[in-house]
Amino acid sequence: MSYNSSPRFLSISLIIGFSLLGFFIFKGLKTFSDKDRVVKVKGLAEMEITAISAQINLSFAFSGDNLQKIIRDTENKKVRIINYLKSKGFEETNIKVSSPEITDREKYYEDQWINGKTVSVKINRYSNELSLTIQSEDVETVEKKANQLKSDLIKEGLTSRIYTHYAFPELNSVKPKLIAESTKNARIAGEQFANDSEATLGKIKTASQGQISIAGSYDSPAPYIQKARVVSTIVFFLDQTNFKNDLLNNFM
Hints:
Layout (H helix, E strand, L loop, with lengths): L5 H29 L3 E13 L2 E12 L2 H21 L7 E3 L3 E4 L4 E6 L2 E6 L3 E11 L5 H14 L5 E7 L7 H22 L3 E10 L3 E3 L9 E15 L1 H10 L2
């Protein structure tokens, strides 16, 4: 007695073939769909940077109608201030003097609202402004020195506008580390979202880094220490790995 197994074998082969074909078609469609399944996250990175130098900026001005007189007054005050700074231990080589800025106004009068009516008021024709900068490498004591200097100059009759300025390292020197940290933090945020969505975080689709900026205030207790900051925006692919694994297990 003979038994023909070809039909049964053919049926089993067709079932397996159609099943595999359906699986691979589904897998292909799923892969295509996953290309649009993304998550957009931001990563923040901050780093403290310390000033490498500081300046005390000092300026004053004279005004009047006699140009030669205000030039003389400006020069006399400049000399007195420099002599005073040298007496307090400041090196003359660290004191820089700008060129005088002389303004000649075309109009000697301006309209002002006084007692309910417009009145033409005489103003000084000329003004002369001068600035001095004192360079210092001791960034930690500049604020204290500037405040003391302001008080001392007032007592000496040399009142001036005084403020400090700090020079920080080139931001490009800390850029690679900041970008790496911001990317890492963005990935952490993306992984949290993926876990909550029962997905797996995939490769980076797009990435952009904002401008590195200095975040801080000169009014802080230590204005010579500021924060360099950058925010990266990254789009990650999301892979539905768990779903695909379950599908594979059903065919095994």
